[in-house]
Amino acid sequence: MVSEASGSPVLAFEDVHLSFGAVKAVNGVSFTVNEDELFAVIGPNGAGKTSIFNVLSGVYRPQQGRVVLEGRDLLGMRPPAIARLGVARTFQNIELFANLTVVDNLMLGRHQHLRYGTLAALLWVGRARGQEVEHRRRVEEIVEFLELEQWRKMPVGLLPYGVQKRVELGRALAMEPRLLLLDEPVAGMNLEETEDMARYILDIRDELRIPMIMVEHDMGLVMDIADRVMVVDFGTPVAIGTPAEVQRNPDVIRAYLGGDPDVEAAVEAGVEAAIAAEDEGASA
């Protein structure tokens, strides 16, 4: 029960196999990501989700398969080269410079777009001056987009956790990505922070039109905002489809709940009831 979207994909992840000794971290995983699509990867702990991200960003090199971004094969490239092609990533654990301000942290995302040397930067002349103005203009657009204005000059380490996660998202956006990888973007957040982050993610898709791959354990968030979902278990793809299709898939229920028939039946009944209620509300 694996379905794929139609159209010309931005990313093609084709029959990828990655093993560490006898452990198969990624076992024959294939999927595509289309323009303006929010594609989610879910699965139990140890299912291989982070390994898929590490293959995409060049940290791991699989033994078999292809990863193609807009016609360019990424396998064999180092992470900086992949970043220059437009793959940006956020991390589950915040990776910011706590003593730098919000604006300075966002400016770090512009590093790969610098086109001047150290001497020009020190003398603050010519190309360095012009590009610095342009980079700061782009950063200010991100500050406005993510509603960070009140914190723009504050050290990141003094900010609330949810705002720090937003700053990390902003740094990834500063790279002007062609593909954005979101590694558990709402991990550790309260309900209000989660709702805010969901809104920004949808704005990135709908307004900035950046395709995204999201790994997330918050199933409510995934089912609410993802266009398509892939479920993996022990490195193997279980199902790909819309959130409703995945929720109904018995193999998905089995992967999460261990195959208890009574529990599976109860969950399936609950899913059907929830979908029926949603359909009834939509038609009212």
Automatic annotation (TrEMBL):
CDD domains associated with the record: ABC_Mj1267_LivG_branched
InterPro entries per the UniProt record, alphabetical: AAA+_ATPase, ABC_AA/LPS_Transport, ABC_transporter-like_ATP-bd, BCA_ABC_TP_C, P-loop_NTPase
GO annotations of cellular component type: plasma membrane
GO molecular function: ATP binding; ATP hydrolysis activity
ABC transporter domain span: 11-259
Domain of life, per lineage: Bacteria
Keyword terms, alphabetized: ATP-binding, Nucleotide-binding, Transport
Nucleotide-binding in keyword set: yes
Pfam families for the chain: ABC_tran, BCA_ABC_TP_C
Designated name of the protein: ABC transporter ATP-binding protein
Biological source species: Nocardioides caeni
Top-level taxonomy: Bacteria, Bacillati, Actinomycetota, Actinomycetes, Propionibacteriales
